[in-house]
Automatic annotation (TrEMBL):
This is ABC transporter ATP-binding protein. Residues 24-254 form the ABC transporter domain. The chain holds residues 1 to 258 of 385 of the full protein. The keyword Zinc does not apply. Belongs to the ABC transporter superfamily. Keywords: ATP-binding, Nucleotide-binding, Transport. GO terms for molecular function: ATP binding.
Amino acid sequence: MIINIDIDSDFLKRRKREEAMGAISLRDIHKNFGAFPVVRGVDLEIADEEFMVFVGPSGCGKSTLLRMVAGLETISSGEMTLAGRRINDIEPRNRDIAMVFQDYALYPHMSVRENLAFGLKMRRAAPAEIDSRIAEAAEILQIGALLDRRPSELSGGQRQRVAMGRAIVRRPLVYLFDEPLSNLDAKLRVEMRLQIKRLHQLLRTTTIYVTHDQTEAMTLADRITVLKDGLIEQVGTPTELYDQPNSLFVAQFIGSPA
Ligand code: ADP
Ligand code: MG
């Protein structure tokens, strides 16, 4: 699909003015569930505007790490900052971070437009501002024709777009994606992957994207973090990881001949 967008919003100007507003720093992050350590000391700097992909086997702690960044899970120990501000104890809704889930999590009784507006209304945005942000998101995601439908009247791919739209209208400093495309069929996955790439090229919003799909990781990432058993195994650009995996584990995960 070809998308032709000309956005000259205050948002983009604001982004240009303020430096490193989307930089995230994770320092010695731990998470225990009861006595069970799931994240065991993660140190990671994510640059403003960076597209960071987390990969690793099922159960290695990717979702838990992401949920801690979102504030949906408490941190057992360590420190997280966003744009230099400590966010450990800040409520999820005040973090300026938007998360897109695999299961869409749309409100079934609301139209697409109401789904997009809901978070903004909760934040007491002005009606004109809500309308213009919805129009912008609808243009970016090509969902203008769907605004009066209910989620039950949408295909999987359309629902996923609306879920992304809900993140876009908030204009957060950071997007978090937890395997957003894994419920879609192969053709749609490719289409949505391109859409997500376009979205990032357009808005340059710092993104952390969890996936177990190597193609998604290699094509979307500025850098990839490979996780194993709650620890970082390696961080690097797709090329670095492919050319110089520092372990057989990374080599096998990235798919290079070991
Ligand atoms: P991933 O997303 O990499 O597959 P998760 O972060 O979901 O891994 O899970 C990491 C580990 O933490 C798994 O062993 C999982 O069973 C465990 N876990 C996740 N959430 C909870 C929870 N709320 N209570 C107890 N254990 C959990
Ligand atoms: Mg997970």
